[in-house]
Design a protein that fits this description.
This protein is mainly alpha-helical and 492 residues long. It has 18 helices and no strands.
């Protein structure tokens, strides 16, 4: 450990620096608009990078190389679906969100269906986002346990508390600008580790290419399971599961989930919201490609050196960084991995707090929004509360999680189908009432519950099934149970 003091100093220095940087934005927080939307003053490119940082976590960085190490580039099929989703959201959902002063995605549901369904969708977000983020928080301990040789949960506590500190003080402004800085760091760290991994393989890319090709590592598209194949729905990364599943998943996460919608609402104009969202796909595609290629390099490196892969592949990338990269370089890359963790936690904390205050506290207490100083205090208390919740879930997740990347995506996919279905009912129909939409959501949850626990259907289909069942059941229910005059559509 003495020869690692400089690496540990780099990691510690980064943690302190980013916390101090984010906390400096406290003085610009004068209202809820400042705290939850950054005053709508951030440029579109910063919001675009913040979107990517919000959906990237430690589990993405350590889980994606593990996927390519154990398989191939098939995960990119989902990423192509992400592009279709962003185009759809830009055309259908963003115009609806940009009408009027909205702070959360669930305000759209209130305007279209009423307060009851708004609270239900907002509550669903709070529960499921907390669970999914808890798995991401746990991923921090995997990295730190590799560095310190311990599984001590103190690592989770330290990272969460430091992130909580600057999110508590600086709100969305701090979140966006620390996201930009942290994303620059973790992408630079990934590029550095890619180059160093290549340097550790004699012959470089000329050695990697034929070995990886012979092992089928460069394969992206999987067409072997057709619609009539009995394994069509149980294959996680087939072409149709990837593209359709990725499209529906990303439409739900980026079109109905407060974690990302909050950033779209923080843009200055509708055009900048769309530019930020579409530009984020380019970054996401390059980012996933980079981490998958790192996984392929590690496959060749381990094969050439006769090394046994870790029993848990999630430890593969951080173990390589710490054990095979030279001092200073390894410290920089580990700091970069922790940067992704902090940006994701800060995004979750601010979105959970905004939904708590805007969709529950203010409506239930009758606050008119004018007591900004008091509401800022409540918002900070909500941030502290959710920090404690994520910390607790992260510690528990360590005892049950097997693959942190797929576990996080699977947890998020369970409710997102019903959420996407009900948002689609709100945006695209005029006659569906709150009752019918509620029936649709109940049917969607029932369907995905059955699929999750009673079938072998892959998680990539969860959102597709949940959204389709919710939307169709809502339309059917509107023909049977609706008697009230229709509300105006959210796009009117």
């Amino acid at each position: 450990m003495p020869d690692r003091i400089l690496d540990l100093a780099i990691v510690a220095g980064y943690l302190v620096a980013v916390t101090v940087f984010g906390s400096r934005f406290r003085h610009s927080q004068k209202s809820l608009k400042d705290y939850f939307l950054g005053g709508r003053d951030a440029p579109w490119w910063a919001i675009s990078l913040s979107i990517v940082a919000a959906e990237t976590s430690t589990l993405t960085i350590i889980g994606t190389p593990a996927l390519a190490f154990g398989s191939d580039l098939g995960f990119l099929q989902l990423v192509f679906g992400y592009l279709l989703a962003r185009i759809f959201i830009s055309l259908a959902f963003i115009p609806a969100y940009r009408r009027g002063e909205m702070y959360t995605a669930y305000e759209l549901i209130r305007r279209r269906f009423g307060e009851g369904l708004r609270r239900f969708t907002a509550g669903t977000f709070l529960i499921t986002r907390a669970l999914a983020e808890g798995v991401r928080v746990f991923a921090i301990s995997i990295v730190v346990s590799v560095v310190l040789g311990t599984g001590d949960t103190a690592s989770i506590v330290i990272i969460t508390l430091l992130t909580l500190l600057y999110t508590f003080h600086g709100g969305m402004t701090a979140v966006i600008w620390t996201d930009v800085a942290q994303m620059a760091l973790y992408v630079s760290g990934a590029l550095l580790s890619f180059w160093m991994a290549l340097e550790n393989i004699p012959g470089g890319w000329e050695t990697v290419a034929p070995l990886a090709s012979a092992a089928g590592k460069f394969r992206i598209f999987h067409f072997e399971t057709g619609f009539s194949d009995p394994g069509f729905f149980s294959t996680t990364y087939s072409f149709w599961a990837g593209v359709l599943g990725g499209c529906f998943l990303s439409t739900a996460t980026h079109g109905t989930d407060q974690l990302v919608v909050q950033r779209l609402l923080a843009a200055r104009t509708e055009a900048e919201s769309k530019a930020a969202l579409l530009a984020s796909w380019v970054v996401v595609f390059l980012q996933f490609t980079l981490f998958l290629l790192i996984g392929i390099l590690l496959f060749v490196f381990y094969q050439q050196n006769g090394l046994a892969a870790p029993e848990r592949l999630d430890r593969l990338y951080p173990s390589f960084v710490w054990n095979f990269l030279p001092p200073v370089v390894s410290g920089i890359v580990i700091a970069a991995i922790l940067a992704a963790a902090m940006s994701n936690i800060s995004a979750a904390l601010n979105s959970l707090a905004s939904t708590t205050v805007m969709d529950f506290y203010i409506p239930l207490t009758g606050q008119d929004g004018k007591a900004q100083e008091k509401l800022l205090g409540v918002s900070r208390i909500a941030t502290l509360f959710w920090g404690a919740v994520l910390l607790g879930i992260g510690i528990v997740a360590g005892h049950i999680s097997q693959s942190v990347l797929e576990d996080g995506l699977a947890i998020a996919s369970v409710p997102l189908g019903a959420m996407l279905g009900v948002f689609s009912l709100g945006v695209f129909t005029k006659s569906t009432s709150q009752t019918a939409a509620g029936v649709g959501m109940a049917a969607g949850f029932a369907a995905i519950g059955y699929v999750t626990f009673a079938t072998s259907i892959a998680w990539t289909w969860y959102v597709v099934i949940g959204a389709t069942v919710t939307y169709l059941a809502g339309l059917l229910a509107s023909r049977i149970v609706d008697s009230a005059p229709p509300r105006a559509t959210a796009t009117d």
